[in-house]
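Lab notebook page, bench 4
Experiment: in silico fold of construct C2
Operator: M.H.
Input chain length: 370 residues
Purpose: comparison with the prior construct
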Amino acid sequence: MSSELRVRLSVLVILATGCNGADPTYGLPEDRGMLLTEDAGPSIEELWPPDNGSLAWSADGGEVFYQSRYTQCGACVDLIAVNVETGESRTVVSDLWPPYQLAASADGAWLYFASRPDQTVYPDQDVGVFRVPVEGGTPEHVYEAEFHRYALSHDGSLLAVGGAVFDIAQATPTSVTMGEPVQFSPDDSEVLHLGEGEAGITSVSTGLSETWTEAPLGLYTVGVLWLAGRRELLYVEGSMFSDDRVERQLMALDEAGNTRAITEAGELGVEFEATASSVSPDGTQVAIWFNTYDTEQPPNDEGCGYGQRCQQELLLFDTATGDPSRIGATVVEHLGVPQNSRPWNMVFSPDGSRLAYFLGPRSIYVQDVP
């Protein structure tokens, strides 16, 4: 490819393989980041799609929360906090049914999580949203409902879940028109939600919803850039599982339905498949792990498929200019769908200085953001 990114990639390949070309592989220099743990759960097969919050940062960015490995033993899962500076871990709470969608409150006091045991088998087990003090303690059942995801307001006072906005302090739900909630607006007055092939916005005060966009098929949604007075849906053109030969391009769709290209045409090749992504808290950067090429061959636009050793690249983009930089790389074996060997479930720290992500089925890494 003729893009600046591909030129830099080619230079790094030469560095990685040596001047005499004796090394038969064409991988980039390895940089997975700092390993936090190799025994986290769930695996990607246990939680798919892998975007329901298996990781969460503490409010001060000093710890990463995750769940222990689940071994089909019922209520036997722990929530664990690991210090990103020392690597020391501690148990926040034990003996849970497998939780998902972890979220730390902005005031640093609570760790929220959802739980949905099979009540046909275990009818006495509670379902819904729970919270536990960050320093440890007994979980509190906040809201009872069966659902797939929830959203916590920025000020920590509201939950959007199951067709309702719930006032946590008053313990009162308000019915609203809403699909699966994704996130609150910066002032907590609206909720972004996903429905049948569309993204919508629900007003907290009126409970009414309006369609933002009908999500085009074949797009990989990177995230939402939502700041005061600005709302954009970020996506990569072309599906992460698509067989079409369309060059990938990072795009943005604003609240009026207008699109803009963040990266130039040809900046990302047809082989670039996004597997994990996150938008920085200030909206200035977006990080994406891409599956690119087979390292047993020189870089090309054929992509990397099942059974091959695939180059993974962690790219950081400026959301205003599209300028890219590579901040991580590794090689993994493509194991099919779900690809439990590839990076998944990535989250920026609250100050945007670090990224945490799963890489492989059980390992969590942290990467510094320049």
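Observations: Residues 4-17 form the longest helix (14 residues). The longest strand covers residues 285-294.
Next step: discuss at group meeting.
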